[in-house]
User: Which sequence fits this backbone?
C-alpha cells in the first residue's frame, strides 16, 4: 500500500469539507478551494480525519492514491495556513515595490514590469530585493512565482536576475582568451 496514500489527513477546527460526486470543496479561514478528484478514488471521514481509499491494487490506482491524498492535504493546509514562495532579486538597480496590490519590478528594461495578482494571491515585499508570493492554492502560488521569475531569469555569469530563495545558480567563468596578452 502507498505510504503517502494511507496516511490520514487531519482536519483542524474551522475547516469544512464537502464532497459531492468527485467534486471536493474545502472551506477554511483563508478561503475556499475546489478540485475535481479522480472518479475511482473515494474519501472516508472518521473522527476528525479524512482518508483516501483506492478500489484495487492496480498500478494506476496505486499511483492515483498518493497523488489524491497529497492534493487533498494541500487543500486543507492551504485554507488553514496558506503557502508562501519567496524570490530574491540580485543585480544593480534591480528592485521590487508594491503599488496597491500590484507588483512593480525594475529589472533593467526600459520600462517597469507590472504584475497584477490573480484572485487569491497576495504579494509581499519585505525589502526591495525580496518578494513573497502568498496564497491558499499551492499550485497557483508556484505558478505565479514561476511567472515572476521568468521576467528576468538568473544568468550564469554574474548571477543577476530573479531566483527562488535558496536556489543555487551555477556560475560560469568569463572569457579567458585575453589573459595571454598575445
Assistant:
Amino acid at each position: 500500500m502507498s505510504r503517502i496514500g494511507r496516511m490520514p489527513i487531519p482536519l483542524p477546527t474551522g475547516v469544512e469539507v464537502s464532497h459531492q460526486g468527485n467534486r471536493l470543496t474545502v472551506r477554511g479561514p483563508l478561503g475556499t478551494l475546489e478540485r475535481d478528484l479522480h472518479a475511482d478514488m473515494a474519501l472516508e471521514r472518521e473522527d476528525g480525519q479524512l482518508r483516501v481509499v483506492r478500489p484495487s491494487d492496480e498500478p494506476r490506482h496505486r499511483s492515483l492514491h498518493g497523488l489524491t491524498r497529497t492534493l487533498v492535504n494541500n487543500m486543507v493546509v492551504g485554507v488553514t495556513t496558506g503557502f508562501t514562495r519567496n524570490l530574491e532579486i540580485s543585480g544593480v538597480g534591480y528592485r521590487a515595490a508594491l503599488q496597491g496590490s500590484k507588483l512593480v519590478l525594475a529589472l533593467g528594461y526600459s520600462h517597469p514590469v507590472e504584475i497584477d495578482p490573480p484572485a487569491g494571491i497576495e504579494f509581499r515585499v519585505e525589502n526591495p530585493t525580496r518578494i513573497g508570493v502568498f496564497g491558499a492554492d499551492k499550485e497557483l502560488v508556484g505558478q505565479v512565482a514561476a511567472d515572476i521569475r521568468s521576467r528576468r531569469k538568473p544568468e550564469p555569469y554574474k548571477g543577476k536576475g530573479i531566483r527562488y530563495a535558496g536556489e543555487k545558480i551555477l556560475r560560469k567563468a568569463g572569457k579567458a582568451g585575453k589573459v595571454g596578452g598575445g
About this structure: The first strand starts at residue 9 and ends at 10. The chain has two helices and 13 strands. The radius of gyration is 22 Å. Residues 83-164 form a domain with the Outer Surface Protein A; domain 3 fold (CATH 3.90.930.12).
